[in-house]
Amino acid sequence: MLKEKGINFSESRDIGPYWISDNETTYSLISNCYCKTSNELLKEKYGQNFIKNITKTADSLYVMSRIEIPFEYPYGVDNYCLIYPKAGDFLEQKIEIQKDFFSSFEFPKKFIQSNEKRDFYAKTKFTINRNNSISNITVKIEFKNSKNEDFTNFFTNQITEFVKHADWQAAVSDGIKVNSTFEIIFYN
């Protein structure tokens, strides 16, 4: 993209122990002269936001080049991207998902519960697609009491049905809806 503008760029290997700032940008003292002059010339020729704009364009092109490959949520998507709209806040999403799941969940009649809870641990992973649909659901369950392993299918089905029918929203990376993998652990 820089070459299209007639800009040749090679990465500098200067690693200086001292830094200097001009209140906008921080430069390595060793290469301060070149970096500062280069940035001033770029701003003069292409405008104040040239580097920001070209970075945004490059990021968008990257997202589009791998649009069918799921991004890992939350690391590969925009900061604080909500995928569970019932949660009002990014940090509350997993709590709200747990709450919604357990609001309609009932343990099987012969399930052996302990007083300390944490009777089961269900690691769940799935893909939230760009069209808000769900795919590739996997559920791995561990039980505190091995006698409860008879209920593995029951728990797997309950979690799978919840995931399939919950109101999910596609993640966004650089303003573009993307497929994303999401993991959550259900436990009581």
Mind explaining what this structure looks like?
- It is a single chain.
- With 188 residues, the protein is an alpha+beta fold.
- It contains four helices and eight strands; from the N terminus they run E-E-H-H-E-H-E-E-H-E-E-E.
- A hairpin with a 5-residue loop joins strand 4 (120-128) and strand 5 (134-143).
- The longest helix has 16 residues, at 50-65.
- The chain starts with 18 loop residues before the first strand and ends with a strand.
- The relative contact order is 0.16.
Give the structure's gist in a few sentences:
This protein has helices spanning 32-46, 50-65, 93-103, 152-165; strands at 19-21, 26-28, 71-72, 120-128, 134-143, 171-173, 176-178, 180-187. With 188 residues, the protein is an alpha+beta fold. It has a four-stranded mixed β-sheet with strand order 3-8-4-5, with helices on one face. It has a two-stranded antiparallel ribbon with strand order 1-2. Strands 6-7 form a two-stranded antiparallel sheet.
Please specify the SSE layout and strand pairing:
Layout: E1 19-21, E2 26-28, H1 32-46, H2 50-65, E3 71-72, H3 93-103, E4 120-128, E5 134-143, H4 152-165, E6 171-173, E7 176-178, E8 180-187
Parallel strand pairs: 3-8
Antiparallel strand pairs: 1-2, 4-5, 4-8, 6-7
Whole-number mean pLDDT: 87
User: How is the main sheet built?
Assistant: 4 strands, mixed
Q: Order of strands across the widest beta sheet? A: 3-8-4-5
| Beta-strand fraction estimate | 15-25%
Kindly report how far apart the N and C termini lie: 52 Å
The rounded Rg comes to: 25 Å
- Secondary structure tally, helices: 4
Provide the succession of SSEs.
EEHHEHEEHEEE
The share of residues in helices is 25-40%
Shape: elongated
The structural class is alpha+beta
The residue ranges in which pLDDT falls below 50 over 5 or more consecutive positions are none
